[in-house]
Each structure stands twice: as structure tokens, then as C-alpha cells.
TrEMBL record:
One of its GO terms (biological process) is germ cell development. The keyword Transport does not apply. The gene is Dnd1. Keywords: RNA-binding. Residues 54-132 form the RRM domain. This is DND1 protein. CDD domains: DSRM_DND1. GO terms for molecular function: RNA binding. Gene3D superfamilies: 3.30.70.330.
Length: 333
């Protein structure tokens, strides 16, 4: 079968049930970058988005279960502002989703009602509080761009920026990368949308904006020399803060992931790491795969690490980097 024909042949009955449901209810589902979203805001919403603490993580979902079952279920305990289902290219879900409620009470009710709830006989799901991200990376800044200039631009086009830290870009020669921290997930999301839609340029170079990846964060924090950091609040410069703490030691990071998987009844993670590239400056590129029994789809992808000491293989550091990424995907970093 051709790839598209094979994809369309997967789970046809439930896909048709979903299509029928969307037509009957008039609900719009939008799929972007591996996730399918309802709402954000939903039809008829008036006012500001919900505050922090209103989103829950939903894990251990059957892969052939869709929004026609999940949205009515989670709406039964409170008004949904947004529902995001993580998807594979075949049209199956990845086994987890996020539901954001109109208030914190709805999120608490969802956790109380649906954690360990059997959506099918023998299929108990996990529902717990989601951790919302507040940091962005801005890569591709010209080396001539100063901290003051970047701060002035960001304060003009975004709201809620708390700190700006400049680094030498690990991906582009003669360029800088900025880590931006915002006051809330919503402020960071709005800033990301504004900066991406604006095709922002500083110093003649095109800038790429994305959520700060834990692997990149760990790589930046491990650099021996860092340019100074500027903290801003209410338009006033507060001076240079103390250097950021080093990332957690390996055992702490792995313990956090193991504890999270135990808390969500997902099983013990299995790590597979393979070095695929070595740079003269000591950085190693690994291809990593993490298999978690309760997640139907493994987590996999590349990461860069630098061994802690001479002669180190880098495998332990790669484990730490990919563990941070998995924690981030699961909403715990």
C-alpha cells in the first residue's frame, strides 16, 4: 500500500465516528504540528484565557480513541477552554492529551473524577496536573545585537517578559541565541505567536523562535562562559542575577522521570542511546530512544551533549538530556 492509503486504512471505524460527531456538533478540530486542538478559545468564549493551574495531563489513552469520546467525557466535570490530543502520522493518537478548563476548579474535578478511570474495560487512564511552559528560545540573532536593543524590541511587541539571557548560538556560527522567560504560559504563548508571525529580523538575520527545549537548556547551562543576563520588571533593569544553577545531576533527573512514570502508572523507562557524531570541540550527537510501557509510542530523536570529564562516553549525559525532554513533553519540566 502507498503510505497515504495505509494511513487512511488505520482505525477507519473510529475515524468515521469522529467525523460524524464533528458534523453533528459543529465542533472544529485543527491539527498543527502533531497535535489536534479544540478551542483555545472555544466558541462563545468571552474574556481573558484561563489562569495557570487550569490544565491537566491525560495519559495511557487507547490509541484508537478520539475527541468524540474524550471531549464529552472531560466536559462532564467542567467547561473546557481547550483540548489537545497528540497525534501520530497514521491518525492514531500518541496515548496522551491535555485538557484546559475555564477555571482551576474544573481541573481539580477532572483529576478527582478521571485519574485511574476506565475509559474501556481494562483501560484505566491517568489524569494529573500539567506544568505550563514559560520559556522561549530565539536563535539566529546577529552578533552585533545587544542585550539593551533586544530588550527594547521585546518590550515593544510582547508583554510579560521577565528575563533575557544571551548565548553564543550552538547551531549558527557568528550568531546569538536568546532565552526569554515570561510571567506566564499564556504570555509566552502570545509572545511566540507574535514573534513567529512577524518574521522577526534583528541585525539583518532571520530569527527562529520556539519553546525552549530542555536538551538545549541543559546544553546552554553547561557552557563554561556565559554573557551577562538582564532581568526586567516594570521597565526597570534589576541588574545581573546570580548565575543559573547547573542542571540536576543525572540520578536526580532519572529519579524524577522514574517517579513521574510510577505516579502515572506508566512503567519503568528504558533508554537506548547511540553516538552518531563527534565534533572537535568535544560535543557529541546522540540518537536516543526512550520506551515507556504505558506510552504506546516511544520517544525518540537526536540530542547534543558534552561529556563531564575527559574520556567520558557521553551516554550518561545523553540519558539525562533525553530524560529532560521526556519530562518536558509530559508536562513536568
Amino acid at each position: 500500500l502507498l503510505p497515504q492509503m495505509w494511513t487512511n486504512s488505520i482505525n477507519q471505524a473510529n475515524k468515521m465516528a469522529l467525523l460524524t460527531w464533528t458534523k453533528e456538533t459543529g465542533i472544529d478540530l485543527v491539527q498543527v504540528n502533531g497535535q489536534r486542538r479544540y478551542g483555545g478559545p472555544p466558541p462563545g468564549w468571552v474574556g481573558d484565557p484561563p489562569p495557570a493551574g487550569t490544565e491537566v495531563f491525560i495519559g495511557k489513552l487507547p490509541q484508537d480513541m478520539y475527541e468524540n469520546v474524550l471531549i464529552p467525557l472531560f466536559q462532564s466535570v467542567g467547561k473546557l477552554y481547550e483540548f489537545r490530543l497528540m497525534m501520530t502520522f497514521s491518525g492514531l493518537n500518541r496515548g496522551f492529551a491535555y485538557a484546559k478548563y475555564s477555571n482551576r476548579h474544573g481541573a481539580k474535578e477532572a483529576i478527582a473524577a478521571f485519574n485511574n478511570y476506565e475509559v474501556r474495560q481494562g483501560c484505566a487512564i491517568v489524569v494529573c496536573k500539567s506544568t505550563e511552559k514559560c520559556e522561549l528560545s530565539m536563535d539566529g540573532l546577529a552578533a552585533s545585537v545587544s542585550q539593551r536593543e533586544l530588550e527594547a524590541v521585546l518590550r515593544r511587541v510582547t508583554e510579560g517578559v521577565l528575563s533575557i539571557t544571551l548565548y553564543a548560538s550552538p547551531c549558527q556560527k557568528w550568531a546569538q541565541l536568546a532565552v526569554l522567560r515570561y510571567s506566564s504560559h499564556q504570555a509566552a504563548a502570545m509572545a511566540k505567536k507574535t514573534l513567529m508571525e512577524g518574521s522577526m529580523r534583528l541585525g539583518g538575520l532571520e530569527v527562529r523562535v520556539d519553546w525552549l527545549n530542555p536538551s538545549l537548556k541543559q546544553k546552554l547551562q553547561s557552557c563554561e562562559e556565559k554573557p551577562p543576563s538582564s532581568w526586567v520588571q516594570g521597565g526597570k533593569r534589576l541588574g545581573v542575577p546570580k548565575p543559573a544553577p547547573l542542571p540536576p545531576v543525572l540520578c536526580d533527573t532519572l529519579d524524577r522521570l522514574n517517579a513521574l512514570c510510577q505516579r502515572r502508572y506508566l512503567g519503568t523507562p528504558l533508554f537506548l542511546t547511540k553516538c552518531i557524531q563527534a565534533n572537535p570541540n568535544g560535543w557529541l550527537r546522540f540518537w536516543c530512544r526512550v520506551v515507556i510501557p504505558g506510552c504506546p509510542v516511544p520517544f525518540r530523536g537526536p540530542t547534543w551533549v558534552r561529556p563531564a570529564g575527559p574520556g567520558g562516553s557521553g551516554h550518561e549525559e545523553a540519558k539525562m538530556a533525553v530524560a529532560l525532554q521526556v519530562l518536558w513533553v509530559l508536562g513536568e519540566s
